[in-house]
Amino acid sequence: MTTSIYDFSVNNIQGQAISMAEFKGKAILIVNTASECGFTPQYRELETLYQKHQSQGLVVLGFPCNQFGEQEKGDNQAISTFCQLNFGVTFPLFEKIEVNGANTAPLYAYLKHSAKGLLGSERIKWNFTKFLVNKQGKVTQRFAPTTKPMAIETEILKLL
Question: Belongs to which family (predicted)?
């Protein structure tokens, strides 16, 4: 039985398997991202939060996804380059995944079940849905794509 996000392994954007247990003891903000979305500028605020609070134990994890309007068409290398060049992203990025449907990444199935959306829905509605995870690996909150990353800072600080 899955008890926390630490039970999962994911591939980083370079294709290497990473155990989520590597992030034990940190507050984690997990976001499904896309390079051609109206919310793409949120990368800037995500990076700001990461830089500002990394030393206190925050990590931001980006999971590119092409399921919403095909707004993440590039391969992993193109995504990584785009994020670094356009937004100076230094927080960890992972391989492109699916967050809904039959091929939902197991980590995302757990996140969606742990923090349901509007009216109890587990479905991810769009790019830049955010999940906040405490230092024990438990999902504490889910935020809509329209919620700007800096608006979550108060909630992040409670977990640090």
Answer: Belongs to the glutathione peroxidase family.
